[in-house]
């Protein structure tokens, strides 16, 4: 009878050497410590695209903007404006002359605009860029928001919707805005490029409705400005992209949130911080008014040229040319800026100037070309001023 003894098969060999059995998960060494894992996760989070939504606990903390009193009793108004604008790029104004009742009436009129039928919005507010009705959903924008833009001085009562409170509110904000620009100009040491009475300015009232359920709500086009003003009717938070990164602020009720824009940063030759686009209101808890923002943009006329205005830079331009390249169009690039600097002496100064003179940080460029590009390309996460930096 044959033997039933079980014979073990020999282990596989490699070049005559017996090979060890394959390792199991339990025998694998832990090569990644908890500290290494945390570092890897931190590096991953820093590489995430800015459009990716992160958990709320990773959102920037809410801060209160610096408070500046605009009353005559504040003898340090210019210093306060300069300090907040150069360190943060935003602040809130108190003791201003804008009645809260006027702001509330303007908000009610703004809400009524969005209740109109879509075809009536288009007929009553035809586009005359940048003014008019804008439906971003029609333009293929994912946010799907709607907005109205009014030129404060050219807007008439030809539309069927009464806008008397909204326009009065816009002019009240404009008056405060002129005071801020004048104070900043004097604090920086150059003449107010808008004129003491705003004769060389353009003021746009931008009313935007956000999309429910999105926090923060970003709606409406982006347009370059000197400063933007938003009245705080109720306790509400705003999110904005400053030079220091994303910021969430909660201004005081009845205060005016002021953000410094890209044009002011160029005027100051880079000394002032800025906010890209308008501050966006975080949507409220089912409150429709919480998704509407009324922003007054104090900006420049279309035919303006934007360039640094600091005294030392202006003096050098007068000595070596106006600093503007007549052939510089919307395709201006950093390389073209560098070429212009070489023409002026190779080191950012006009020939014959001493080294103590301040170096230009930005090239001169046409406002209309820049405004058209920012408005249509929606350059929020990429700083549109980078191409004009020297």
UniProtKB/TrEMBL annotation:
Gene3D superfamilies: B-lactam Antibiotic, Isopenicillin N Synthase, Chain. Residues 335-357 have a biased composition (Basic and acidic residues). It comes from the Eukaryota. Residues 66-124 form the Non-haem dioxygenase N-terminal domain. Residues 31-40 have a biased composition (Low complexity). Residues 320-329 have a biased composition (Acidic residues). GO terms for molecular function: metal ion binding. Keywords: Iron, Metal-binding. Residues 1-40, 122-142, 318-357 are annotated as: Disordered. The keyword Metal-binding applies. InterPro entries: DIOX_N, IPNS-like_FE2OG_OXY, IPNS-like_sf. Residues 241-284 form the Isopenicillin N synthase-like Fe(2+) 2OG dioxygenase domain. This is Gibberellin 2-beta-dioxygenase 8. It comes from Nelumbo nucifera (Sacred lotus). The lineage of its organism: Eukaryota, Viridiplantae, Streptophyta, Embryophyta, Tracheophyta. The gene is LOC104594914.
């Amino acid at each position: 009878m044959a033997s039933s003894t079980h014979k073990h098969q020999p282990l596989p060999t490699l070049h005559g050497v017996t090979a060890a059995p394959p390792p199991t998960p339990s025998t694998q060494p832990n090569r990644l410590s908890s500290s290494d894992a945390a570092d890897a996760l931190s590096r991953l989070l820093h590489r995430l695209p800015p459009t990716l939504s992160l958990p709320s606990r990773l959102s920037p903390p809410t801060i209160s903007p610096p408070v500046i009193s605009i009353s005559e009793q504040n003898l340090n108004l210019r210093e306060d404006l300069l300090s907040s604008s150069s360190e943060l790029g935003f602040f809130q104004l108190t003791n201003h002359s804008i009645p809260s009742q006027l702001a509330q009436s303007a908000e009610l009129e703004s809400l009524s605009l969005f209740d109109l039928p879509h075809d009536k919005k288009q007929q009553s507010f035809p586009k005359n860029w940048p003014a008019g009705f804008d439906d971003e959903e029609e333009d293929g924008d994912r946010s799907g928001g709607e907005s109205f833009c009014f030129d404060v001085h050219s807007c008439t009562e030809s539309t069927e919707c009464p806008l008397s409170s909204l326009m009065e509110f816009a002019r009240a904000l404009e008056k405060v805005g002129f005071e801020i620009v004048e104070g900043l100009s004097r604090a920086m040491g150059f003449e107010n490029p808008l004129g003491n009475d705003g004769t060389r300015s353009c003021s746009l009232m931008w009313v935007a409705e956000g999309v429910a359920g999105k926090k923060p709500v970003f709606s409406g086009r982006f347009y370059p400005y000197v400063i933007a003003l938003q009245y705080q009717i109720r306790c509400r938070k705003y999110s904005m992209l400053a030079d220091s990164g994303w910021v969430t602020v909660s201004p005081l009720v009845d205060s005016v949130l002021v953000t410094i824009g890209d044009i002011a940063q160029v005027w100051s030759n880079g000394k002032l911080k800025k906010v890209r686009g308008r501050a966006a209101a975080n949507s409220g808890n089912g409150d429709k008014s919480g998704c509407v923002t009324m922003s007054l943009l104090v900006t420049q006329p279309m035919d303006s040229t934007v360039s640094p205005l600091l005294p030392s830079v202006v003096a050098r331009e007068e000595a070596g040319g106006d600093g503007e390249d007549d052939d510089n169009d919307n395709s201006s690039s950093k390389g073209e800026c560098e070429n212009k600097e070489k023409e002026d002496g190779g080191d950012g100064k006009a020939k014959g100037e001493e080294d103590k003179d301040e170096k230009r940080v930005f090239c001169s460029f046409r406002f209309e070309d820049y405004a058209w590009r920012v408005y249509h390309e929606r350059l929020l996460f990429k700083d549109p001023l980078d191409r004009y930096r020297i």
